[in-house]
Design a protein that fits this description.
- The structure is a single chain.
- This protein has about 180 residues and is an all-alpha fold.
- The chain folds into two domains: about 1-110, Tetratricopeptide repeat domain (Serine Threonine Protein Phosphatase 5, Tetratricopeptide repeat), CATH 1.25.40.10; about 115-183.
- It is built from nine helices and no strands.
- It has helices at about 10-20, 25-35, 40-55, 60-75, 80-95, 100-110, 115-135, 140-150, 160-175.
- Helix 4 packs antiparallel against helix 5.
Length: about 180
């Protein structure tokens, strides 16, 4: 009647209620098991995003990115798809997986209107620039070099391009790279 069968698949509200009071590792295990079940789209989207939110602060950026891509693919609105693809792109940038980030970014662009495309390009540039600066602060020079090289490969103004080139020259010197080829 009003009761659900034991062993039945939970809905979003039941999943949210069950997550309260759980530690993050127990939540991760529970949510991963739910993804293997035949759950409805709303619940699946919630589980994917929730799991990505748990992964991100733990530095599991590539896994979080993959979850956001799956979430984007089942999203029912263009804005929702665009936002999830951009979140996936951001997670892949943080993971240093720029090819996967590019794919997610292109999918986000495909869902955007003309004004949103301009905003997305600016957001992507700031995302990569912020990541590169964070890497420099952590003294991860090789990773920072890769991030700045990626930044140089996207659309930049001339002053931005010169700034990135100068940073890269400094990084190349510190890393002892002699084959400097900045366009």
């Amino acid at each position: 009647m009003g009761f659900r069968d034991i062993g039945s698949v939970p809905n979003r509200r039941e999943v949210e209620a069950k997550l309260n009071g759980m530690g993050d590792y127990v939540k991760m295990d529970y949510l991963q098991r739910l993804l293997k079940q035949n759950i409805d789209f709303d619940t699946k989207k919630f589980v994917l995003v929730k799991l990505a939110q748990i992964y991100e602060p733990r530095g599991m950026f590539a896994d979080a990115g993959k979850l956001m891509i799956v979430s984007a693919e089942i999203n029912t609105t263009f804005d929702g798809k665009m936002n999830d693809f951009m979140k996936g792109a951001e997670m892949f940038v943080k993971a240093g997986r720029y090819d996967e980030s590019d794919i997610a970014f292109q999918k986000a662009l495909a869902c955007a209107n003309t004004s949103q495309k301009v905003e997305l390009k600016i957001k992507r540039k700031e995302m990569i620039k912020g990541h590169a600066k964070d890497l420099m602060k952590k003294d991860k020079r090789n990773n920072a070099m890769q991030a700045y090289e990626k930044l140089l490969s996207i659309e930049l103004s001339d002053p931005e391009k010169r700034e990135v080139q100068n940073i890269l020259l400094g990084l190349y010197e510190k890393l002892g790279r002699s084959e400097i080829s900045i366009v």
